[in-house]
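Protein: ATP-grasp domain-containing protein
Species: Nannocystis bainbridge
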Amino acid sequence: MPAVIFIAPFNLPATMRFVHAVASLPNVRLGLISQEPLDRIAPEVRRRLAAFERVADALDVGHLEGAVKTVGHRLGGVDRLLGTLEQLQVQLGQLRDRLGIEGMGEEVSRNFRDKARMKDVLQRAGVPCARHRRITSAGEGWAFALDVGYPLILKPPDAAAAKGTFRVTDAETLHHALSALRPSPERPAVAEEFVTGRERSFETVTIQGKPVWFSSTLYDPPPLHVLENPWIQWTVMMPREEETEDTRLARPHALAALQALGMGTGLSHMEWFRRDRPGGPPVAISEVGARPPGAQIVSLNSYAHDVDFYERWARLVVLDQWDSPVRKYAAGVAFFRGQGKSRPGARVVALHGLNEAQRDLGSLVVDVKLPQIGQPRADSYDGEGYAILRHPDTEVVARALRRLISTVRVELG
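Structure follows.
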């Protein structure tokens, strides 16, 4: 009977779906560590827990080490230590190393978390990625701009979901980005060549380093463009076709990247570009995460394959088991993002186009979270709500997603 500890710093719906999946596995003793009080955990998860420990800071390895020891003692040992939050991956590696728990250790986790280190590893392995440099001063940032030219990207080395990322187009925006990031030896930044093209994701299941399954999605538009334009509603689509020109281009580079970075057992998430610059390589790897993807991609897999992908993930990371599903549908998600005043304290004041969207597209919708009147403006690029659609025909889903984001409008005030 495996003993598993899941660290879920915050009671986020996405995180708790993974916790629930592990809790639902038969013959598994589950312990949960969180900053949240136990009474805020959903009852269906609470009643399946064998142990629980609350900590003051669930991103601090010092707080977590004592909690893991305490929960591990209650469970009679620890076979797996899990967590899906990107900002937690290095701490999980440190804890596994310190406490002798099987799984990805600190050095490998830093390959995925530190974006400058990641690209150094990829470059040495011959994996195509943007030119880059770790910078520890404003002067190094100016020197990189002189070498590479504009546009370029500046971001923290541990950036996630494009947060804290700056697109630099000239000397003025470079000055602004360097002033915001203030790179230093203690807190470096990453400067990268700005890659243009169509952005995609590539997900891979590996067991002890061996790839056993993959899938791919299409972003429209790229996430950085979404962050720079708060009014844009965007989509992520998974074609019904498992083998496409995109997957044929990306797969060899994705597998080489995972091998170079040291991926063991799990579901990884790679973001990459089909470059549109003539004469250059057709693929550029942007980032690779050693954890499940966000942007509802796990749910898209559930609907596209007609299986519970969260349960599949749980069996993978706890039991090293994987059964490759058959894809039956194309699936896509449209993210509804508020338009209008983006001042502090802005809230949803109206929803437009819902009746028209329901009339024309309602038969395709399999999951929806509509923005609510009075809801605060979201601070993430996922926006205030979403709708997931599916259909056996990829083009039907593609057209429906475009129609949906042009019909539904979330008004802020």
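Remarks: The two ends are 53 Å apart (CA to CA).
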